[in-house]
Amino acid sequence: LTAMGEPSMDPTLSSPDSTAQQDSLFSMMDVFLISLITGLFTYWFFFRKKKEEVPDLPKMQSVAAPVRDSSFIEKMKKTGRNIVVFYGSQTGTAEEFANRLSKDAHRYGLRGMAADPEEYDLSDLSRLSEIDKSLAVFCMATYGEGDPTDNAQDFYDWLQEADADLSGLRFAVFGLGNKTYEHFNAMGKYVDKRLEELGAQRIFELGLGDDDGNLEEDFITWREQFWPAVCEHFGVEATGEESSIRQYELVVHTDVNMNKVYTGEMGRLKSYENQKPPFDAKNPFLAQVTENRKLNKGGERHLMHLELDISNSKIRYESGDHVAVYPANDSSLVNQIGEILGTDLDTVMSLNNLDEESNKKHPFPCPTSYRTALTYYLDITNPPRTNVLYELAQYATDAGEQERLRKMASSAAEGKALYLSWVVEARRNILAILQDMPSLRPPIDHLCELLPRLQARYYSIASSSKVHPNSVHICAVTVEYETKTGRLNKGVATNWLKNKVPDQNGSSSLVPMYVRKSQFRLPFKPSTPVIMIGPGTGIAPFIGFIQERAWLKQQGKEVGETVLYYGCRHEHEDYLYQEELARFQKDGVLTQLNVAFSRDQAEKVYVQHLLKKNKENVWKLIDEGMAHIYVCGDARNMARDVQNTFYEIVSEFGNMSQPQAVDYVKKLMTKGRYSLDVWS
Hints:
By secondary structure, the protein is α/β, with parallel strands linked by helices. The protein folds into 4 domains: 72-234, Rossmann fold (3-Layer(aba) Sandwich); 277-327 and 456-518, Elongation Factor Tu (Ef-tu), domain 3, CATH 2.40.30.10; 329-454, CATH 1.20.990.10; 530-678, 3-Layer(aba) Sandwich (Rossmann fold). The protein contains 21 helices and 23 strands. The strands form 5 sheets. Strands 1, 2, 3, 4, 5, 6 and 7 form a 7-stranded mixed β-sheet that branches. Strand 20 (562-568), helix 17 and strand 21 form a beta-alpha-beta unit. Helix 10 (386-393) packs antiparallel against helix 11, helix 11 packs across helix 12 and helix 20 (635-653) packs across helix 21 (658-670).
């Protein structure tokens, strides 16, 4: 190569010599090209190998993927179960019904298990047919405005997106709802319809329980027809009478390290001493009460405003969200139960699940004392359900009392009527039943096993995080009433909150709480007008809304009309936040303040009457201003009456028929322009 290169440097070469040099040059280029192609091929070969290996990796992983821990099918096979009862539960009732159905199964030679859908992969439903005589039952509560409960949200999302073939699945659904709400039993209806659409076989009709009526009776009526349908489908028969089978065994701890004993925590042991975010239902934040003042100037009721300090909690909230608080039962009720049953309430014990495969090891955090269980973990103030009466009946030594308890727990019409009058309508809680049946003295551990869990109470937040980022405000009325038996029943949470003293060390000023997000939201554009209707404590979220609109105005934003319809009994007695509302109106934030004093004149005046009075302005705001409407408070009467008033206004000014007006308002709801935050 070097020789070839030398002559090329001589400019005096003749023409033949030039030709020889050209031949030589081609040879050199050939070698260069061959080398280049070889190099490129070598590089491509190795690069190609690497590229081929990349897509193989996930394939290898998916083939070798381990069996999911969350497979309820594997668990059922392992434990010999053939009935699974899923529950969507917000307050514990659906879970309780699911447990009762799973316990029923043994009477028919079947084995059941209650399951939280949040803990399992529900796409496994397509495999349930692998188990002989298998059945999936769904006890589904509806929460809020037709929403799934928190623990059923993932299941609901899966159902909406699923294209699974469930043709081998046999199912039944019992829904828990309340007829005073717009979307009665929406979740139960949806699950029942969607499972059928996916090819599943319904073996018994959808049950619709109504908590505004008698939910317990609705469930019993459905259940007593459900099991015969199961028997007929599978060709099985009842093996005997309903029997009392303990689910948990008692272990008394005589020598225990008190640092390992639960004292009221909801999840992690010592979580109240060593607080760690994030805070939620299983890990509530202990908030200090910084203010607790009476709002009403007179009358028999006690309406109060509380402020909870959430500094350093990292808790964030928006106007319209709910605050959940975990209350404690009245110590005098707890002590009376202990005295009647002759128990040392400070005994430390555990109730351990006899089913070792169950995810639920204890009915409540254990080990703990009976006093802690009855104070923080168990519901001792609501009338007990019929299954509790049935289980307790065996401990009544008087034949008449035992028969009475069994009759009330039966499905006979006479028994249902007796349960309704003697327990439900008389509002007899467990203490009252023990007092009125002197021979009924059950072991306290069995009673603790049977009583439902004490639930968190939800309140609409009465503040804006823009103005109060470090505190959550509550507006509530204490519940207190005399029963038909002459007893004074008190609301657990409101009376507990009433006694919370600000600026005091110790538990007397601490409230376990967390925030639950809601869909009750101010419009995205501050310039959008809002019409708020909230009588009584229904004013709570609107205090937050008005605070936020005032803050937006201070920031220089254009804020639309802010209209409030509020109602109370007497102007000089229970007009809540009167001074604050007057100030907001004076500052021009609250553009209209309409107050109905229902009992200050001969004829009662309510918020819907004021809406009718201002109907032209109301329609203008809705039609031209594209206003958002918000209703908060009583679902049974107020919310329904207000909605009917809107139907009338829309019909009159929109020149629509009644059905068209109804459809118009429903569309406002669908678009998020008519929102409800109601309770019954």
